[in-house]
Fold this sequence. Notes:
By secondary structure, this protein is an alpha/beta fold. Helices cover 34% and strands 20% of the residues.
Amino acid sequence: MYIGGIEAGGTKMICAVADESLAIVEQTAIPTTTPADTLAAIFDFFAPYPLAAVGVGSFGPIGIDPQQSTYGHILATPKAGWQQFDVVGTLKAQWPDTELIWTTDVNAAAYGELRLGAAQGKDSCVYMTVGTGIGAGVVRDGALFQGIGHPEIGHTFVKRHPDDTYAGTCPYHHDCLEGLAAGPSLEGRTGIKGQDLPDTHAIWDLQAYYIGQALVNITLTLAPEKLILGGGVMNQPHLLAKIQAAFVEQMAGYMDTPPVEDYISAWALPNQSGITGCLLLAQERMSEK
Ligand code: ADP
Ligand code: ZN
């Protein structure tokens, strides 16, 4: 038997098959189009492999409470065709004998980083992606943190920088963390895509101010053992040090944390944290059986 992982993103679905020891047998990326076409391509990819368990880490928001009728569904996404789509129900219909584990993409990534990445040996961590959006996954006592819903830290509010007048990009809140600091805000503020901005540009200090502040808020709320940053915007090598400095400045000595260079780090599994977490969740479920 094999295990499967699906990191379901708004742009692409990363699918992987592994053996029981987690060695990857085959991996692919399927473009996210309509639910019907995308799921058909996913089922084609996995068809040769009998699957004992599949871990799914999905873009959100998603229904996560097994007591609710929305469990397993994608909820209020702007992604056309996917609103209220029943992902788990569709997978279950195709794979009735396969164990399914369902969580967010960032929860899966946090789990991958905890077990095999930057937070190895710890019991808790928060993983934050700064990409097209901002999202964060939380692991506590070695397990995914989720209740009636899942954390939506990307949409929490941050204190505006006094010099910042940008309206923000979030369709719901305008100037929440995601609205002020996700990748599209870089282009919205400067007219230049993040990847094309020089590292001397003043925007990086503003970017660090917001991400650093968000990490202060997370630390004050959850006190995790480790904070991990990933996502497209973190491909700027100079940004991590600026964020660490902004964190120290805004924490203002209030709470003791480990040395900031240890406490806040870049993902150790670049672009693989999510799919690794999905496979780990599947492997664990399989070994419980
Ligand atoms: P997604 O969030 O859709 O999974 P990514 O994590 O790759 O995708 O994030 C894409 C965002 O990151 C875009 O807004 C893009 O402009 C920005 N981005 C990609 N590369 C860089 C870079 N080197 N520096 C700054 N921003 C970047
Ligand atoms: Zn928002």
